[in-house]
Amino acid sequence: MPRTPAVARYRGRFAPSPSGPLHLGSIVAALGSYLQARVNGGEWLLRIENIDPPRELPGAADAIQRELVRLGLEWDGEVCFQAQRVAAYRAALAQLEAAGLVYACVCSRRDAGLGPYPGTCRGRARAPSAPASLRLRVGPAPVTIQDRLQGGYSQILAQACGDFVVWRADNWPAYHLAVVVDDAWAGVTEIVRGADLLDSSPRQRYLQQCLGLPAPRYCHLPLVLDLDGSKLSKLALAAPVAGNSASMVLAQALRFLGHPPPTDALGAAPSALLAWAISAWSLAQVPLQSRRPEG
Ligand SMILES: [Zn+2]
Question: Domain limits of the chain?
Answer without folding.
Answer: 11-285
